[in-house]
Amino acid sequence: MSRANWLVKSEEEVYSIRHLERDGITSWEGVRNFEARNLMRDEMKVGDEVLFYHSNAKPAGVAGLARISREGYPDSFAFDAESPYFDPKSDPTQPRWFMVDLQFVEAFPEVVSLERIKSHPGLTGMVLLRRSRLSVQPVSEREFTIIRELGRGS
Q: Which H or E element spans position 121?
C-alpha cells in the first residue's frame, strides 16, 4: 500500500513544531471535527508523512515535518471530565473521537508561509486553500514535495 501525506494544524502557542521536536512523539488529540476524525481513524497509517502547520501565527504556515507513528485509536481525553477535550457523548465502549501519534522529523529553518503557499502555482489546488479551517487534511505527493523543498530552502 502506498504512503499518504497529510497536513495537521496547531496553534503555535499551544503546540508547535519545537514542542514536537522536544517531545519526539506526541498524541494528536482533541480534534473535534467529524471529517478530520474520520481521516485520523480510517486513513492515516504508520509511516505517512505530515506537514506540521502553525495556525494563528505570524506568519501562519508549514513549520516542519512529522510522521504518523501510531494509527488511529480512541481519544481518551474525550472521556476525561477534567480535559478541555471532554465530550460527555463519547463512550469508551463506542468511542466518538480518535487520535493518532505523530513523530518529529524536522523543523524548517523558516516557516513556509500561507502567503507563499498561495502564490506558488503548483499549490493552487491544495485543500488548505479551499477548506482552510479543516485541522487535518490530505496533501498530494506533489504538494508535499513542493512544500518540503520550499521549507528546506531548495
A: none
Cα–Cα distance measured from residue 115 to residue 120, given in angstroms and rounded to the nearest whole number? 9
Q: Write out the DSSP string of 13-70.
A: TTS-HHHHHHHSEEEE-----HHHHHIIIII--TT-EEEEEEESSTT-EEEEEEEEEE
Q: Which three cell numbers stand for residue 10?
A: 496547531
Q: In terms of Cα–Cα distance, which of 47, 38, 35, 57 is closest to 4?
A: 47
According to DSSP, the residues that pair with 10 across neighbouring strands are 54
Task: Quote the pTM value.
Answer: 0.94
Q: Which residue type does 8 have?
A: V
89-100, pLDDT tens digit by residue?
999 999 999 999
* pLDDT tens string 23-67: 999 999 999 999 999 999 999 999 999 999 999 999 999 999 999
Question: Which residue bears the cell 487535518?
Answer: 136
